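Service request form, structural biology core

Requester: graduate student, group of Dr. S.
Request type: structure prediction, single chain
Budget code: on file
Notes: please return the result as structure tokens.

Sequence provided:
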Amino acid sequence: MAEKAQSQKDLSKQFEVGDLAVYPAHGVGRIESIESRVINGDTHDFYIMKIIDNGMVIMIPTSNVDSVGLRTVMDKNQIPDIYAVLTEKKDDLQDNQTWNRRYKEYMDKLKTGSPFDVAAVFRDLYMLKLSKDLSFGERKLLDTARTLLMREICTAKNQEESQVWTEIESLFDNNGNGSKPAE
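Core staff response, request fulfilled:
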């Protein structure tokens, strides 16, 4: 766990216009500009970031980068670690909890912005879906986790979504039996 926290810390940095970055719960975006704005008489610098998937524009104070969790896109070398999270066996998929409690826990994980947490949410919901019907909220979370995970892996590997999705599906088809997709 300390490794994950350290790798997350290493991912935060100062960004420049044109850089790709990950904003927790929204995904990969591009820094469109860096602007100064006067708020309550004080001048503050902001990253203006456009999310790739939906075109949403977010203003992020440059002084709050760490607290909001803005980070660089994961390195291609971290993808095997993400795939390892996807193939981890979970004995108890929180089936003993109500859907709304699971939903809150999964939302909290997505909000961390950690690709490892996003992968764990995706894995848990994907596996749970195979054994029971998901609530509407859980289906939306599964879709959100899939989108966040896919966009970041596609960006890191510079591959099309269909190629990455085939790799991820193969991880679940093989039930984590040691077969790993090609890097």
